[in-house]
Structures are given as C-alpha cells and as structure tokens.
Amino acid sequence: MINSFKVMIFKRQNFLLLTILCFPLAFNAQTTNDSLSTKGHPNNNKFKQLKDELATPNVYRTASGAPGRDYYQQKVDYVMDIELDDKNQKIYGKEEITYTNNSPDELSYLWIQLDQNIRKKDAPALEKNGEGAEPILRVETFVNTYFKEPFDGGFNIEWVKDENGAPLKHTINMTMMRVDLPQPIKSGEQFNFSIKWWYNVNNHVENRARSGYEYFPKDDNRAYVIAQFFPRLAVYNDVEGWQNHQFWGNGEFALNFGDYTVRLTVPADHIVEATGQLQNPKEVLSRTEYKRYREAQTSFDKPVMIVTQEEAEEREKSFSEKKKTWEFRAENVRDFGFASSRKFIWEMMAVKLGNKNVMAVSLYPKEGNPLWEEYSTKAVVQTLKTYSRHTFDYPYPKAVSVHAKNQGMEYPMICWNYGRPDEDGSYSDAVKFGMISVIIHEIGHNFFPMIVNSDERQWGWMDEGLDTFMQYLAEQDFGKAYPNAIEGLEKYPSRRGEPKAIVNYMSGDQNFIAPIMSNPENVYQLGPNAYGKPATALNILRETVMGKELFDHAFKTYAQRWMFKHPTPADFFRTMEDASAVDLDWFWRGWFYTTDFVDIGVKGVNQFFVSDEPSDEVKEMLENYGMTIDDLPPVVFTMAEDNENFKSQYKAGSPTDHSEDLKSYMEQINVSTDSVKIPKNFYEITFEKPGGLVMPLIVDYTYADGSVERVNYPVQVWRKNDAEIKKVVVTDKEIIGIKVDPDQETADIDLSNNSWPKTDAMSEFDQFKANLKN
Amino acid sequence: MIKLILAPALWSLFAFWLHNFYVSTTSIRFVPQENTLQITTQVFMDDLEAVLRYNGNDKIQLNPSDEQAIIDNTLENYLRKNIIFGNQGKKRIFDFLGKVYKNDLVVAYMELKIDSLSGPLEIKNTLFYELLPDQKNIIHFKVGSKRKSFLAVSSKSEFEIPEHFFSTEILNK
C-alpha cells in the first residue's frame, strides 16, 4: 500500500520514467496499439482455472478432493448358490440380496445390471458400429459370424421375489433391469429380495468375451473363468443418481461394495479359485492338498504346490459324476469372479504387507507351463509390493492369477491372464514379457478400480490410466528384483509409460483422437486413449512436473482418501493439487480435456552488449514522452549485434568499459571490484511453441569449455505468450549449443526444432542404413 | 440376412482388454535430394509373432538371440503383402533394408524410389487385419516441415498423398 501512495505523488515525468524503466514493453505497446477496433474474447488462457469443468464442491465431495462430511455409498450384500453344469455349459444361480440405502433419498425402484445380456441374440450392442463390412476377417471369425447361428446368451431370469416369497414387478431394458418396490426404501433402511436365473456359458476364446470357458479338445476338458455371472445392483450415488449408462461393451463396470457369501457347486474333481476366503478347505480338498494348503500360509520364500502338474494331468481323465460345493466369503468387495476346472495346477505363497500376510496364488492348466510355474506368482508378489508402497497395504487376504488363453481381465482378488508357450514348451520374449505385464496389470487392478472404486462405465482412464501408470513402476521394479528374467536387457521392456512411447499417438490424425476425458464407448483408439496417454501423463507429472516426492505423497493421499469409496475425476484432480500445493489446472486442462500435443523448440539466439549510447528505439521512446537522455537517472543501455547503431568495440573488454553509469555504480557498491565477477556474454534466446500444450521448459546450455548447464524454466513462462517467449542468459562463458527437452521427458512430438544451432542429427533411419554399410 | 448385418460388429464388441488395443506406426519421410521415401514401420513383437504364425509360420519365435535370416525373410514377405505403394494403379516396390528389436517393438526399415510420379501416391496398409480386425495402423507422412497423418483401420486402409506434396515448391520451404 505504501508503495502505491509513493507512486501517486510522483510528478508526471517521474511517473513516465518509472514506466519506461520498469515496463519498456508495455510502454511500446501503448504507443502503437489501436486495439479499439479488435474484438473481445473469453478467457482462452492455457492457465485458466479449471473450475468451470468441475462440479461445485458440496457436502458429499469437498473442494480439497476428499469425501465430504455427508459422503455416502450404498451397500449391497449377496448370498449366492451357484451351480456350474460342465456337461451342458450352463450356470444356474440363486441370490439373496440385502440392499442398504445409505443415501439421504427415498428409492422407489432399484436398477440391476444384467451384463450377460450383451450376449443375447438381439442385443442392440451388436449394432453399435457403423463402419460397414470388414474386407478381411480371420477364417474362424468369418465362419462363426456369417454361417453359424448367433450364440444364445444372456440371462434367463426365472423370478424376482421379496423376502416373503412374493413376486416383485420387474422390467428389463437391454442390459439393465428395474425392480419396482412395494414401498420406497427410506434413507437408512434395508431391503431384502432374491433372484433366480440361468444362462448358457460362452466359449471365451471364440468370441473373446471377458468371461466363459476354453475348450481343450485333446483331453475333452474345459477351463472356466466366470464373471458377470449374476445380476448385480447398479450404483446409486450423489453424482449420477442411478447409473443408467447401458453396457455396450467397452465401458466396463460401476459397482457397489458389499459382503459376499458364495457357494459354488461344481464337478467333484474340479479345482476352484474365487474372490474371497475359502471357508471349507477341509471338505473340498484331499488330505494331502489340505496339508499343503496349510503349509503355504506361512511359506514366504517360495510357492507351495497345492496341486502339481502330475496330479492335474491325472484329474483331467477322471470326469467325476459327483459334485462338490466350495464356499467363499469376501468382505467389502465390489464384485465376484471364479475359475473352475479339472485341469488346474495350483500354487500359492505368503507375502508380508504391513502387519498382514497376503496369499499370492497362481492357477493354470499344464498348457501354461513351463512359463507359468516360473513367473506367475513372482509377478503377483511384485505387484502387491510395488502398488502397496504407492497406495496402501493391500487389504484383501489373497490375489490370484489364473491363466486363460487371450484373456486379460480383472475382478476382486482374482484375474485372468494370457501368455501361453508353444506345445513343445518353448516361448519367445514377447510371450514371456506379455504374460508378466498382463499379470502385473490385472493384479494391479485390485487397487484401481476394485478398491479405489471409480466408475469405469463413465471414465475408463480412471482405472486403466492409473493402473497402467502403476504397472510401469511395478514392471521396472520386477526387472530389478528378477534380473535373470530380463537377461540381456538394461531394464524391463515396458510398453507404456515412457513419454516418447506416446508420441506416435499424440501426433496422429486429429480426426481420430479424443481427449482423455471421454466416455470409453466414444473414442477411436481406446488403448492409447484410456491406458497409454493418461499413464504417460502421470509419469510426466511425477518425474518432470511435480517431482517424485510431491507426486507420490499426493497420489497416495488420493488412493487412501478414496480407498473403498467411489471417486470422480474431479476428486483425483483436486487431491493431486491439494496435497502438493502445485497448481495443475493447466496440466489437467491440456492433457486431459484436449487433444493438444507438446512441441517446444528453440527459435533463435541473439547476443547483446552494453553500449555507451542508446539505440534508436530508446531514443524514439524518450522523444515520444518529450524527454532527453539527461532526464534519465543512471541507466545501462544494451544493443544487439544486428542493431544498426552497434559498434564493434562493444564486444571488446568488460561491460563496464562501455557504460560510465555502470562503472561508477560498480565502484560505489564494491569495496573491491574483484569481489563481483562481471560476466562477458549476454544472450537473448527465443523459444517457440508450435504445440498446443504448455510444459515446463527444460534447456541444456552447452558452453565453449564443454560444460553443460541444465535450466528448468517453470511452465508459467508461457502464461502471457502461448507461442513464443524470450529468456536472457548472462554468462562469462560463450554458449555454443542449446537443447530443449534433452532427455525427451515431455513427449515432444517434433525434435527437429529442439536444438541450436540446428543440427542435422542423423535420423534413426539414416543410422540404420549407415550401420548396414559397415 | 440378419446374421450378415451382425457380423462386422462382433469382433469390436468383445475386443476390449489390455492386450487387444493393437496399434502399429508407419512413418514415411520424403527425402527430396534422393527422391526416395524412407519408411519406418514399428509393430509390437507379440502381434507380429502372432500374425506370422497365423499365416503359416507355426513355429516362428521372434527371439533376438536366434538366427535372424529366416525371421527377416518372413517379415519382408509379410510387409510386402501388407504395405503397398502405388501410383496411378501401378505398384511401386520398396527395398527392404532390415529390422531391429527395440524393447517390445520390432522396427522395420524400407526405402522406395519415387521418380516419375504423376498424380497422388497411394498407400495401403493392411497389417494384421486378417488376424486382428480391431488393429489400428497409424501412418505419418513427413516432407520438410509438412506433415500428414492417417489412421488405417480394416474398413479403410487406403490413402493418397497428393502430388503437390512432392513438388519443388514445398521442398523449398
């Protein structure tokens, strides 16, 4: 305040002086601007606050990104009896559902998800695309789709009853079913009802579904990996009301937490794994198996084989007519999946996480060996360790990796994974690393979205992107923990995560790119869109924008705040800023809400020198205000080499040789002139930004003596000029080279403008060609 | 007839999981001094292995430590069938220079002389469609500072680069 008073009592001329000296650019602009005729515009600044895009904070979700004081979520508990008919590939089920209405609202109906209905013969999802005929199809697909009857899938709902056995009115709309209630469920009340159903189980290898069986003709067995097998309650919450986006195939699931008791009746010679703790191991396992099962609980150094390959091969032949019922219980899970077959080899070991023991489990047919016995459980263990370190200690009692051909799909505590060697047992690196990566990814999904329960139906990136980001960290850890597995490589060959891996996508045809903040049904390239780009964005945030310490704390805060809850994108964006004090509105806006890309370069370098006379521009500036040089306080004039007033002697000697004012000032403040080093070289460097995204400007300056200095200019340099900025570098040493983003950490799509002087760096193509000749 | 209408949708409907987001990138750079196109195609190793096997090379494994001659030969044949250049309906044949392994990628290098071009240059990219109908093939074309990008999918895999891209005016920029 005091300062502004001072300014106000300045005389006119003093005020002008102040303007000239402090804001020479503004001064220039004032004299040349005739802007009255140009049009106005809204705030298009890349640093505009993100508030317009985010929902207003309220009692359910706070501005800090945490759950609010009235945050609620519904609870849905299931008790199920399921029978797997292996001979006819059918599943029969009955479930008792307890729905707890924790919302403040009265509910007069419930919505149930019938995801199996996407396999009905007349499912509208079959007609969701409009690209016309595919000119080329693999022969089995061609026959299956053009010649055969469509698969007769989907739920057959036998009845829906209340707890007294009275039928409940229900209406099926595609993949969802509305159950009308006799009277509304009031806030805080519970409602019990039950459903009976059956459906035909599909062959997941044939139609590439998330669930189904694989048939093994050699031994006439099937391996089942079963999910979406029961009618599940849709989510009702403060942001969507009833989740009402149908299942169209790409947008996965939005599910409630609850407790499950599931009794699975299967052929007596099947081995079963599922979400939850096995309640009756003594009943369903042989004495030997049970003994090994107990041993495994405290085997921390290596897995214990519960069923060996030899035993599994014996079982393949038994085809028991009897049945067994395996009972599983799971608390606080959002879904349930199970795997069942005679063919399964079964191993498990214990992992200590915090003060808890978690079982790392693998289940695979012999066709998975020798790959699976070598790597599956190791990958599970590494995933649990890395993810727990970055989020929270894995809270469930176990994590199971099941081998199923072509699969990569996640459920609470259990997932299906591909990676199959040739029949002779050999496999390539591609198969091996593909298998390890998919296990890490799918086991990792336990954290996002099984526990940090985002809405996959709306926002695919919230679980796929975060999981793929974490997958990258876990893969790199895996490479360090098991150096033998990556023999011959410097590090684990991660497909996604490193900035330059996303460049091809981000520089592609804009007609086929969608912002990350898009529904998974409506994007062109779901892989880069929901997996690769958000994962890379988070990696860049961590390593380049925020730094590991700030990022890791904020990311952990997000995971812990929303553990066993339902976060939205805004909760993530807000928490990352709130817990780090890094304003990231510009980052979310650019990377998540647009399809812009990074392209930053160095445009030119101008050396300038201290001069004894003002340049013509300065003279003109003074003239406009009716002033002369004599009116000025002590000042320093500078001039670029290409200025027409430039004299070659400015280049010689010290800057103090060319400015009396500077010299006398230096003498005044210095006891000894030796104590302040007077630099020789003044540079003005112009950086350009053809790309739409703003990013921190990372520059390596190389000096004549060969030394290199890394300078990180904050992203804020772009806030007032989105196309071009200039920085001044003052140095005693001569600059001989400048390189923008030298370590390729920003996903810059065009490196041809990143260097000064322009180097014709040999392209990878030319390098390859040159190597051929040698 | 309803079956016929259903068919094309089926694959994409159920193709969703991690592994199934197949993408390849082909970058083409025009070098005016030599009047050649430098073509770099990068594909995922596991996709490539799968498609070569699907086309009858049952045993092939893309192991960097194995003998490469057979792999290179198989790869060259596959690329010749699926990356096709043409001009006014006439096929232009590229030289296959070789390939390298890079992490989980295979990067192949090809070169095409394009003298006496009249009319647009046609590019067809059908990599992997026979096995993976959901495959997306990104094509980047670059001449000087000018760029053009295409996204090839199985229902649209042919594109044209206009003749003026190769004109001297552009090159002088």
Q: How large is the share of residues in beta strands of chain B?
A: 35-45%
Structural class of chain B: alpha+beta
Count of strand segments of chain B: 10
Q: SS-based structural class of chain A?
A: alpha+beta
Counting H and I runs of at least 4 residues, what is the number of helices of chain A? 20
Shape of chain A: elongated
CATH architecture grouping of the largest domain in chain A: Sandwich
Number of helical runs of chain B?
Answer: 4
Helix-strand topology string of chain B: HEEHHEEEEEEEEH
Which word captures the global form of chain B?
Answer: globular
Largest interface: A-B, 72 and 65 residues
Name the CATH class of the largest domain in chain A. Mainly Beta
CATH topology name of the largest domain in chain A, in short, is Immunoglobulin-like
Question: Into how many domains do the coordinates of chain A divide?
Answer: 5
* Termini separation of chain A: 73 Å
As a percent range, the share of helical residues of chain B equals: 10-25%
Averaging pLDDT over every residue of chain A, what do you get? 92
Strand order of the largest sheet of chain A: 4-7-2-1-13-17-15
Describe this protein's structure:
The complex is a heterodimer of chains A (774) and B (173). Chain A is of the alpha+beta class. Chain A folds into five domains: 33 residues, no CATH class; 128 residues, Neutral Protease, domain 2 (Orthogonal Bundle), CATH 1.10.390.10; 200 residues, Immunoglobulin-like (Sandwich), CATH 2.60.40; 151 residues, no CATH class; 176 residues, no CATH class. Helix content of chain A is 27%, strand content 25%. Chain A has a seven-stranded mixed sheet with strand order 4-7-2-1-13-17-15. Chain A has a six-stranded mixed sheet with strand order 16-19-20-21-23-22. In chain A, β22 and β23 form a beta hairpin. In chain A, α14 crosses α15. The longest helix of chain A is centred in the middle third of the chain and has 22 residues. The N and C termini of chain A lie far apart (73 Å). Chain B is an alpha+beta fold and 173 residues long. Helix content of chain B is 24%, strand content 39%. The longest helix of chain B has 14 residues. Chain B has one domain. In chain B, the strands form two sheets. Chain B has a six-stranded mixed sheet. Chain B has a four-stranded antiparallel sheet with strand order 4-3-7-10. In chain B, a hairpin with a 2-residue loop joins β5 and β6. Chain B has four helices and ten strands. Chains A and B meet through α4, α10, α14 and α20 of A and α1, β1, β2, α2 and β5 of B.
